[in-house]
């Protein structure tokens, strides 16, 4: 009996030590929930900072509130800045007291002209797109770098009606489909220019809930899994490109009048569409991509990479992008996957000093309530993780945030399989053509780099690299690898 008890005690101690040694995202990130005023619905449509450090929060029910962030989550002194908006889901700060807001019916310039902290000037910049009354038609914006804005105009959903009285032209053909474009420019990115003109920029989107311009001038947006979206795609948005959701085509000036895009063959649509730079596995990493945001210098080891919030999960996705044969493609993994994080990730902004990531949350009834504002800061310890996953001619190179311990990695530690997605009219789609891949060799190419050769790489597939069960990669300081799964979207091989 005594021997059995000693054995059980030892086993419990061993299991406990293993569990304690396993890294967690909370070891590296402080996640706080910020108190919002008790008398407002905390459904966050947009978040931005001005140059003086004041935080602006747009609430979907129509108000915009401001506060100078306090050191503690309950030390924000909120003030009503502006009100009367219809589902404001996009916002940019032009200057302290001066913002531009995208709401369902228009792009609005809002100013505090007398300096009392309350807006007193509201001016419509453009209302170029139609309004059907459908709840799903939200609009988001990002600056174009020249005084104008790119506007992501979402499609309508079959779960809601179109109203009897609409604004703008109506298309019976565009009204067809699960997500539809019955009025102008739904499913498009528009370009509002500094001179006030508006031009159609790109088409073929379903629900690109968030859009950004990176420091190099590239435009990025995600989309939501659904019809014509087998999983969660992240797109590099280029002028005049088509991104695969056909309903928007009815508003293309070059589109033949009376032609129904939903009657095109899948082959025709695939030949027209621009592929996603990254296909993010739906269940594993991101169910509903919202706003992408670029990590600034000084905020941890992943500066320059893009984060994508999940509107239907308690996680944030990190992208590792590169150009292959002139086009963006790359990998994804978790930035944060934590029960401390609210679901409903919708908008994000870094504080001007680069110390904090603020995230705004709302689920709009699609899941359990998860509304509010959060703040994420770095703890002292840097995570040991894959910093970059790159394609090579023979396979992949993994660059880590720290040097690896000698002899910590073996070929058997890595399991690789691949699959493809086929976007079509059905809602979402399974992983197709799944197969195990042969990892034929592994070698260290630098203290923090490892090269893994894969037999028979094939374009058009997602390659998922998993750390085998029981395997542990360690840094020289003894830290264990934080993430254990990484997915690379291989659109093109290296020429």
TrEMBL record:
Gene3D superfamilies xref list: TolB, C-terminal domain (2.120.10.30)
Q: Where is the DUF7133 domain?
A: 79-229
- Record key words, sorted: Signal
Q: Which Pfam families match?
A: DUF7133, SSL_N
Q: Which InterPro entries match?
A: 6-blade_b-propeller_TolB-like, DUF7133
Q: Which residues form the signal peptide?
A: 1-21
SUPFAM superfamilies in UniProt? Calcium-dependent phosphotriesterase
**Top-level lineage group:** Bacteria
Q: What is this protein called?
A: DUF7133 domain-containing protein
Q: Which organism is it from?
A: Rubritalea squalenifaciens DSM 18772
């Amino acid at each position: 009996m005594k021997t059995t008890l000693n054995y059980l005690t030892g086993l419990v101690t061993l299991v406990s030590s293993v569990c304690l040694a396993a890294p967690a995202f909370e070891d590296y990130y402080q996640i706080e929930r910020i108190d919002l005023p008790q008398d407002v619905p905390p459904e966050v449509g947009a978040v931005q900072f001005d140059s003086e450090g004041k935080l602006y929060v747009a609430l979907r029910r129509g108000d915009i509130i401001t506060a100078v962030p306090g050191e503690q989550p309950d030390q924000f002194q909120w003030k009503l800045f502006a009100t009367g908006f219809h589902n404001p889901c996009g916002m940019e700060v032009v200057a302290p007291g001066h913002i531009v807001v995208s709401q369902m019916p228009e792009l609005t310039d809002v100013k505090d002209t007398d300096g009392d902290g309350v807006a007193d000037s509201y001016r419509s910049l453009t209302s170029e797109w139609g309004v059907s009354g459908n709840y799903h038609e939200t609009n988001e914006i990002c600056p174009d770098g020249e005084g104008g804005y790119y506007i992501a105009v979402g499609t309508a959903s079959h779960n809601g009606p179109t109203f009897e009285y609409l604004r703008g032209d109506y298309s019976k053909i565009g009204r067809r489909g699960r997500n539809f474009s019955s009025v102008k420019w739904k499913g498009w990115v528009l370009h509002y220019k500094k001179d006030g003109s508006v031009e159609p920029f790109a088409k073929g989107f379903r629900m690109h809930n968030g859009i950004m311009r990176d420091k190099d001038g590239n435009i990025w947006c995600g989309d939501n899994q659904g019809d014509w979206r087998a999983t969660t795609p992240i797109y590099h948005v280029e002028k005049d490109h088509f991104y695969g959701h056909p309903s928007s085509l009815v508003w293309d000036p070059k589109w033949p009048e009376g032609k129904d895009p939903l009657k095109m063959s899948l082959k025709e649509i695939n030949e027209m569409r621009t592929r996603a730079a990254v296909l993010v596995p739906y269940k594993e990493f991101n169910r509903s991509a919202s706003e992408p945001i670029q990590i600034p210098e000084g905020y941890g080891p992943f500066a320059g990479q893009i984060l994508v919030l999940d509107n239907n999960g308690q996680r944030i996705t990190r992208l590792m992008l590169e150009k292959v044969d002139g086009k963006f493609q790359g990998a994804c993994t978790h930035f944060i996957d934590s029960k401390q994080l609210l679901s409903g990730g919708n908008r994000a902004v870094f504080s001007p000093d680069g110390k904090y990531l603020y995230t705004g949350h709302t689920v709009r009834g699609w899941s359990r309530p998860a509304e509010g504002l959060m703040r994420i800061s770095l703890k002292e310890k840097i995570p040991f993780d894959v910093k970059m996953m790159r394609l090579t001619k023979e396979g992949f190179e993994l660059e880590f945030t720290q040097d690896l311990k000698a002899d910590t990695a073996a070929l058997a530690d890595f399991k690789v399989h691949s699959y493809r997605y086929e976007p079509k009219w059905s809602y979402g789609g399974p992983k197709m053509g799944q197969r195990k891949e042969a990892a034929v060799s592994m070698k260290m190419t630098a203290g923090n780099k490892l090269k893994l050769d894969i037999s028979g790489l094939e374009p058009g597939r997602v390659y998922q690299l998993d750390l085998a069960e029981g395997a542990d990669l360690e840094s020289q300081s003894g830290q264990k690898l934080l993430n254990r799964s990484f997915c690379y979207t291989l659109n093109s091989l290296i020429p």
